[in-house]
């Protein structure tokens, strides 16, 4: 039941399909992220940080509040947003640290990769690997799996394709370990290598757009001011992950209440919101600026062109357990990975058009910034 409710909520809020609704399956967003250490994880999620933040800051306005001391103006509906992706968003390349998974020496055919750990695959490339005794090989595997390597990391981001695989590369390294046969320190040269991370591919499979949707409610007007809210009920995802939470609010104030502004209605706006997906992700966004609108027609049948210029910011925090195997006893080691990233958009120019027919308000707009996006809304207006 909880999983079904979570899937419904994420389908509405994220509109990213089952890939993001999966919280435990290996093929989903969370399962993929848990295979990545910090630097690899940062590169993997960056496009969704920018796109998701861009979306959350969009769709807040499609008109200006009336210049009324007091009036009843209610709207309730759904707003959908989408940030366009480019080929540049679908791959990343960076440098950082990475720890390879180890385990018990497989003692199998070197051409058979099925039962080998990442550390063993690297160790097999040592020039004198073949004649080494099994316990010496195990010591080398253990030492590799207990070392943080400086590596190059390249591959798909969360919006990359499922055909592209993340690869970890490192330069030739002189490696030290303790020999179990002599008890003395020994060293060996590990040649440069490339390791493909199995199962780490793009989650959204090259999607042309990162989508988002949110229910939205507006109420006004007091001295030319209107308040807008976004909200979904809190729900527990699982005992391990925690709860899903989402809330946002903002205000618009018509400057015509105090200043003589001809022809159009001009409003100052401020919006902020916060979304949490259990313990794995938290997003916070803020935007503020000026928007202008002009209504043509009648109260229940009109068109309203509108535009705005907004300053904005977005941040996303990630926290997850990175688990890997270490040692001959296949000890499971868990490191808590946490980091915070900022979205690339800092300003946006919005142009759009609204249409009201009786009690239905429909609007669409296009947003120009570091990443471009589009939004649309359907509201019941009273």
Spatial arrangement of strands, main beta sheet: 1-8-9-10-11-12-14-16-17-18
Largest sheet: 10 strands, antiparallel, barrel
Q: Radius of gyration from the CA trace? A: 27 Å
- Here the CATH topology of the largest domain equals Lipocalin
Describe the structure.
With 382 residues, the protein is α+β, with helices and mostly antiparallel strands. Helix content is 15%, strand content 49%. It is built from 6 helices and 18 strands. A 10-stranded antiparallel β-barrel has the order 1-8-9-10-11-12-14-16-17-18. Strands 2-3-4-7 form a 4-stranded antiparallel β-sheet. It is elongated, with a radius of gyration of 27 Å.
Which descriptors would you attach to this protein?
Lipocalin; elongated; ten-stranded antiparallel β-barrel; disordered N terminus; alpha+beta; 382 residues; 49% strand
Provide a concise account of the structure shown.
The chain has 382 residues and is of the alpha+beta class. It is built from 6 helices and 18 strands.
Topology:
Elements lengths: L1 H12 L4 H4 L7 H5 L4 H19 L13 E15 L6 E8 L19 H6 L10 H12 L3 E8 L10 E4 L2 E6 L6 E6 L2 E4 L12 E14 L2 E14 L3 E13 L10 E13 L3 E13 L2 E3 L2 E26 L4 E12 L4 E11 L2 E9 L4 E9 L1
Antiparallel strand pairs: 1-8, 1-18, 2-3, 3-4, 4-7, 5-6, 8-9, 9-10, 10-11, 11-12, 12-14, 13-14, 14-15, 14-16, 16-17, 17-18
């Amino acid at each position: 039941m909880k999983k079904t409710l979570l899937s419904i909520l994420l389908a509405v809020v994220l509109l990213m399909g089952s890939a993001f609704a999966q919280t435990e399956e290996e093929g989903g967003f969370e399962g993929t992220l848990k295979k990545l250490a910090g630097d690899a994880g940062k590169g993997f999620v960056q496009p969704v940080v920018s796109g998701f933040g861009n979306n959350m800051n969009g769709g807040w306005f499609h008109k200006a509040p009336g210049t009324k001391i007091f009036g009843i103006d209610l709207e309730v509906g759904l707003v959908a947003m989408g940030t366009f992706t480019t080929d540049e968003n679908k791959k990343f390349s960076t440098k950082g640290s990475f720890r390879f998974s180890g385990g018990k020496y497989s003692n199998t055919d070197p051409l058979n990769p099925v039962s080998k750990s990442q550390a063993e695959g690297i160790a097999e490339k040592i020039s004198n690997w073949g004649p080494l005794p099994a316990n010496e090989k195990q010591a080398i595997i253990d030492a590799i799996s207990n070392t943080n390597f400086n590596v190059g990391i390249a591959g798909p981001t969360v919006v990359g394709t499922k055909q592209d695989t993340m690869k970890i590369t490192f330069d030739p390294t002189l490696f030290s370990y303790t020999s179990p046969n002599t008890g003395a320190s020994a060293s060996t040269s590990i040649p440069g290598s490339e390791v493909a991370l199995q199962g780490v591919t793009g989650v959204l499979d090259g999607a042309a757009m990162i989508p988002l949707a949110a229910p939205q409610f507006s109420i006004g007007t007091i001295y030319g001011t209107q308040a807008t809210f976004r909200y979904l009920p809190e729900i527990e995802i699982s005992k391990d992950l925690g709860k899903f939470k989402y809330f946002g609010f903002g205000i618009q104030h018509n400057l015509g209440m105090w200043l003589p502004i001809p022809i159009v209605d001009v409003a100052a706006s401020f919006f902020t919101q916060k979304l949490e997906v259990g313990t794995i992700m938290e997003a916070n966004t803020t935007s503020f600026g000026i928007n202008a609108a002009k209504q043509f027609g009648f109260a229940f049948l009109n068109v309203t062109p509108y535009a705005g210029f907004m300053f904005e910011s977005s941040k996303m925090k990630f926290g997850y357990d990175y688990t890997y195997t270490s040692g001959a006893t296949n000890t499971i080691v868990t490191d808590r990975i946490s980091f915070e990233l900022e979205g690339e958009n800092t300003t946006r120019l919005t142009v759009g058009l609204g249409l009201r027919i009786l009690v239905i308000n429909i609007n669409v707009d296009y947003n120009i910034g570091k990443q471009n996006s589009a939004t649309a809304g359907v509201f019941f207006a009273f």
